[in-house]
Every structure is written in C-alpha cells, then in structure tokens.
Amino acid sequence: MEPADLGHHISRRFNEDLEKLRSRVLQMGGFVEQQLERAVTALVEGDSRLGEQVALADHEVNQMEVSIDEECGRIIAMRQPTASDLRVVVGIIKTITDLERIGDEIEKVAMIASRLAGSDAGNDNYREVRHLAKLVTEMLHDALHAFARLDSQEALAVARRDRAVDDEYEAIQRQNITLMMENPRNIRRALDVMWIVRALERVGDHAKNICEYIVFVVHGKDIRHLSLDDAEKQIRGTATERQG
Amino acid sequence: MEPADLGHHISRRFNEDLEKLRSRVLQMGGFVEQQLERAVTALVEGDSRLGEQVALADHEVNQMEVSIDEECGRIIAMRQPTASDLRVVVGIIKTITDLERIGDEIEKVAMIASRLAGSDAGNDNYREVRHLAKLVTEMLHDALHAFARLDSQEALAVARRDRAVDDEYEAIQRQNITLMMENPRNIRRALDVMWIVRALERVGDHAKNICEYIVFVVHGKDIRHLSLDDAEKQIRGTATERQG
C-alpha cells in the first residue's frame, strides 16, 4: 500500500470515528434537552415523582460524558489528528463538559421542583420561570443544531441570545426581591424561584459556551473572551484569508 | 540518528514543553488564589476600589486560559503524545477551564464587595463569609500543590474537604433565610451574602474538579462521578495491577 493510500485510509477511519462521536454528542444533547423539559414540567405541574425521576436520571448524563471523553482520548491517541481534525475532538471534549454541567443545573431544578410539589406551594404555575425556561430550552436546542451542522454563523446568532436570557433573569430576580420585601411570607417561595432561575440562566451560559466552541472548531479562533461583535469581525477575517 | 535516539529526543522536547506548561498553569493558579484573597479583603475591609481592581483583573485570568489552551493544542499537534503523556495535556486543558471559572466566581464576589463598600452597609465584618473563604482558599491552594507534585493521594484528601465546604455553605444559607424572615430590613444584606457564599461554594467545587483531573492524569481513571471512597478503591486497584 502506498503512503498516500495509507493516509487516505487513516483519514477515512478518522472520519468514521468522528461521525460516531458527533452522533453520540447529539444523542447526549438530546437527552439533556429532554431532561430540561421534564424538569420544568415537574415544577409547573407539581409532579414530585417526575422531579425525582429527572434528578435520578442525571447519572446517565454523567456516564455519557465519561464514555465520550474516553472515546475522544482513544481517537487522539490512535489517529493522532492535527489542525482542524484535532480541533473537532478538543471541541467535543469541551462541549460534553458543558452538557454535563447543564445536566447538573437541571438536577437542581428537578430537586427543588420535587420538594415544592410535596409542600403546600399549591397551584403556582410559575409563569416567569416557564418563560425563561422556554428561552434557554430553545437556545440549547439551536446550539446543538449549530453543532450538528458545524454552522458558525448560527452558533454566533444563538450566542447573542444569551443577552436576552440574562436580562430576563435579572428582571425575575428584582421582582422576587420586591416580593420578599413586601411580605416575609413570600420569602421561601421567592428564594426557590431565585435558585431555579439562577440554574436556568446558567444553562444559557453553557449553551453559549457550546456556540463558542463551534466557532473555535470551524475557524480555529478562540472567541470566548471577546465581545460577540469582535468575534464576528475575527471570523470574517478568517473567511477573507481563506478566500485570499 | 537512530530511531531510538529520535524517540528519546522527541520525548525530551515533550518533557520540556510539559514543564513549561505546568509552570504556566501554576502561575495562573497562583494569580487566581491571589484574586480570591483580594476579593475577600475588599469585602471585609469595605474597599470598593480593591473590589473593582479584582473584577477588572479577571480578564488576565481569561487571557492566561486562552494562551495555555492554545499551547496545549500546539503540543498535541506537534508532539502527538499518547497514553499518560496525552492525559497530562488533556488534564491541563480541563484544569485551566476550572481555574478560569473560579476566576468568574471571584469576579462576582469582587463586584458585590465593591457595591457593598459604596453603600451604607457599614462596618459589617462578614465573619461567616471569612470562615467559608478560608476553607475554599486553602482547598484551592492545596489542590494546586497536589497538581504541582501530581500527588493523587493529596488530591483525594483535598477533594474530600469539599464536603465540609458544602456543610458550611448550607448552614450560612439557613441562617440567612432566618434573618430575612425575622426582619425584612435584613433581606438585601442576606441576599448579598447568599450570592457571595454561593460563589465561594462553587470555587470549592472547581477545586475538587481539579483534584479529580489529577487522579485521571496519574491513574488514567475518571473518578468524577464516583463517591470518593469508590475512587480510592479504584486507585488502589491500579496501584496493585502496576505492582503485579
């Protein structure tokens, strides 16, 4: 076999490995999305058992992370990828860390939901929580979509939406502080809502991180600590260099 | 040059790269430790300007992370390390992510400290915060010490201390809820303390993560989702296999 053939062969194997890896990440992402939706349902419908189920299922998310992480290590060692191939694998290692941490935030929501359902909190429908949950669920979904297509434009657009999540989060926090001040009997409920929306806001942060890894994989630029406007300029720069 | 010499040469170069990398991580860790101590000083001494300085300096932590991350990518691509060598580099990539997130938590503490110093909070010496801060500062310091020596026994011992941090954190939260219930005028101060101790508790979590990466680097075992007792058993298993 000629060296070029061998190279081709390795690269085909690597591409197959990578396809499997990516589909496993998407599977993990899909499971995390489902967990998020179920945790919010448990809260809104006061379903204590569902809350418990979601919290217990977090260990599956953890196992997926450990297993994909090991697979990434195996692929780096076996195929010794360089440049953009290596970036894909490193990008995946980082993405699953964030998915796992999203899982942890969801677990917190689910546990509070389960506890609240068992208390006398009654028919509170948590309107404000539902609205924020909708924003972050969509953000996570679209971040995973951008990941699946390695679409850095979509990734940047999704990352921008974290601002709206932060604004909504701040508004809910302020509202809850007011409620607490008005009547001490509101304190417990307000605190629970504050912890829940805090967890949801963190989910938005992690979804944004995933978007930034996508840009890193596609363009080789680390944009994590740039403003999104500067990031967009840097990416245009890469695109121009490539055309030039 | 004989192939064995070449291998030796590559390995010597790799070891040099690795030494530089490790000392840069320790430098980053030392800077983060200093940031933590200064943030707590800003809070306790009501030093608004120091709080601002600490918050502003977080961008240095971010830059260190990006730069070390790039260096790790370069080393994987150039030296193509395998097995335990690769684990060291992957362990470093993960460690600096946690150090960067510790930086983010400290930034939050510094910003709240700066705001409180400017308000009429007066001569509050935040006894409970200082105690928790001492626990997590020591945990972070010792985690970095274990990292420097790649000492997995010390790493496990440090990881165990996260339990005490969590207990202390829970106690402070309960105390603050009581204070809020007693008098609505306590609400703002209690909430600020709650966010600060939350951030400190997260620092403890990240320090624990770093300890778990050390075990992964040394033994090739991912113990993140095991109990620490099970982790210890697994590590003993590796040690026995090696002796056998």
Question: What report would you give on this structure?
Answer:
Two copies of one chain form a homodimer. The first copy, chain A, has helices at 3-44, 48-56, 58-79, 83-118, 127-149, 152-160, 162-182, 187-219, 228-243. With 244 residues, chain A is mostly helical. The first copy, chain A, has one domain (3-243): Phosphate transport system protein phou homolog 2, domain 2 (Methane Monooxygenase Hydroxylase, Chain G, domain 1). In chain A, helix 5 (127-149) packs parallel to helix 8. The longest helix of chain A is centred in the first third of the chain and has 42 residues, at 3-44. Chain A binds chain B through residues 59, 62-63, 66, 69-70, 73, 76-77, 80, 82-83, 86-87, 90, 93-94, 97, 177, 180-181, 184, 187-188, 191, 222, 224-225, and chain B through 59, 62-63, 66, 69-70, 73, 76-77, 80, 82-83, 86-87, 90, 93-94, 97, 177, 180-181, 184, 187-188, 191, 222, 224-225.
Summarize the structure.
The structure is a homodimer of 244-residue chains. Chain A has 9 helices and no strands. By secondary structure, chain A is an all-alpha fold.
The gross shape of chain A turns out to be flat
SSE series of chain A: HHHHHHHHH
Task: Name the quaternary structure.
Answer: homodimer
**Rounded radius of gyration of chain A (Å):** 21 Å
Helix content of chain A: over 70%
Q: Which structural class fits the helix and strand makeup of chain A? A: mainly alpha
Classified in CATH, the superfamily of chain A is: Phosphate transport system protein phou homolog 2, domain 2
Ends distance of chain A: 36 Å
- Total domain count of chain A: 1
What is the CATH class name of chain A? Mainly Alpha
Total strand segments of chain A: 0
CATH architecture level-2 label of chain A: Up-down Bundle
Characterize the main sheet of chain A. none
Low-pLDDT runs of chain A: none
Number of helices in the DSSP assignment of chain A? 9
